[in-house]
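Hi all, posting the design record for the shared folder.

TITLE: backbone redesign
STEP: 1 of 1
STRUCTURE INPUT:
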């Protein structure tokens, strides 16, 4: 099996593994396997990710739109992606597992959640999209397109699952924030408050960007292209 075919199969398997958690089958597996479900799920997810990476680095280059100028797109987009990523990891968020109690707060959508209720997922989406634009080949569209698809569809699936499970508390939260960044602010349902986000989270995101920029040639063998 050639690497391009393996990349397609690995990407499909990777997506299917993650979408499993949004189907009724997940409840059956959790009931049957108990705590072993999470371990098996994580192992399968990492295995398919490793398969994707292996196939991607061995896939032939078939140009679609590659241009030297586009390689700078990630340099512009990635600081925003890493700030969203850092804020998503370092902020309390009712969309995350075990944090539904935050919906009871007087203002459940504060800080980065005023911009989007899925900062982590949008960070991944910007990372993937910027790499698709910069690289412009078939293998990159498949590889990074898999992550972009998962990130964007994941925001919708999370919203759907939380709405069904949390009812009125979720609807109150969703009414004052948005999936699409800045949509709730533009609609007048919330306001931008940079002070609430926390300057140290922004600095952490920019530091992460700087570290990735510095280490990128060593880790991935590409200069300043992410």
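Okay, here is what came back for every position:
SEQUENCE:
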């Amino acid at each position: 099996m050639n690497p391009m075919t393996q990349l397609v199969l690995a990407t499909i398997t990777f997506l299917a593994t993650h979408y499993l958690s949004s189907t009724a089958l997940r409840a059956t597996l959790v009931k049957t396997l108990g705590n072993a479900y999470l371990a098996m799920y994580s192992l399968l997810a990492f295995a398919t990710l490793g398969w994707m990476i292996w196939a991607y680095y061995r896939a032939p280059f078939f140009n679609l739109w590659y241009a030297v100028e586009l390689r700078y797109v990630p340099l512009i987009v990635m600081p925003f992606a890493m700030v969203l990523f850092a804020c998503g990891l370092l902020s309390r968020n009712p969309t995350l597992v075990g944090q539904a109690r935050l919906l009871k707060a007087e203002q459940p959508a504060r800080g980065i959640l005023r911009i989007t209720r899925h900062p982590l997922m949008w960070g991944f989406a910007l990372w993937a999209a910027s790499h698709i634009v910069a690289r412009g080949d078939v293998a990159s569209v498949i590889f990074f397109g898999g992550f972009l698809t998962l990130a964007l569809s994941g925001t919708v699936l999370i919203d759907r699952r939380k709405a069904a499970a949390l009812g009125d508390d979720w609807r109150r939260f969703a009414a004052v924030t948005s999936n699409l960044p800045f949509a709730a602010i533009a609609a007048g349902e919330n306001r931008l408050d940079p002070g609430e986000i926390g300057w140290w989270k922004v600095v952490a995101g920019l530091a992460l960007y700087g570290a990735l920029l510095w280490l990128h040639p060593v880790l991935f063998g590409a200069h300043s292209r992410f």
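COMMENT: The chain has a mean pLDDT of 89.
Let me know if anyone wants the other runs.
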